[in-house]
Design goal:
306 residues, alpha/beta, four-stranded mixed sheet, two-stranded antiparallel ribbon, 8 strands, 43% helix, globular
Amino acid sequence: MELGIVHRLFGTAVDAGGRALYSVVTCAPEPGELITDADFTVNVTHGPRALEQADTVLVPAATEDYGPQERGRLSEPLRRALAHVPRGARVASICTGTFVLAAAGLLAGRRATTHWKSCDELRSLYPEIRVDPDVLYTDDGGVLTSAGVAAGIDLCLHMIRGDHGAEVANTVARRTVVPPHREGGQAQYVEQPVPAPGADSTAAARAYALGHLGEPLTLEDLAREASMSVRTLSRRFLRETGATPIRWLAEQRLQYARRLLERTDEPVDRIAARAGFGTGTAMRLHFREALGVSPRAYRNTFRGTD
């Protein structure tokens, strides 16, 4: 699955004219037929020299990455292969592929994550890494890591979104039938992602919020829509989404504002009002904190206009 995620998501990213935005190539330290932990093999035709042309290198988890690890454990063929990665290339890992980046010395001093079951082991073996066990993915200066298998989907969509904007990433997500965006800081383990049959859910509150992003919304408003107390809403919201209601709402507003900046020529202040930030100044603060750029700079990146 980790291998298929990369091809499925990056391979289906296209521009408005239908032109592929990425060329996805799979390589191995030694090309040929590779075994898997399933009842089929994978035939890889490219060797490590393919890495020399890469702008981005993704390392999926391999069977051996799920077993006990040793510090710096890299096979000599894998070590030689990684030497072909160009200086300045973006490097990322999916699930326990993080151990490969760690062993190669690419995560020293950086924030990183991996599958929650392996975070303690990663921290013990590599104390120089700032291991964060409570997130879906990390992005630290062009080196990215993701948590368990499905978090690789979130990581790839995050990269596509950063490269080509929310509209392209959302189209990829729709075609793959996955959520278009889960914030990297969302908890890895969501206690109750799907409510039990007959159980009360915060779905009504979330639907109401999405339809009224431009209005002032309080916890009391959301609790009323869900027919819950504020305390119950907050507890169940965290169980179902991995985020608090306020954090979730801020993220939805940010994503809506990003889409408007990409799609329309509306002034920043107007977009801020439509997205529920109130003022352009408030939205600029949110953009700086979440994305490191101003709304105007973000628009210029994806529309090429002022």
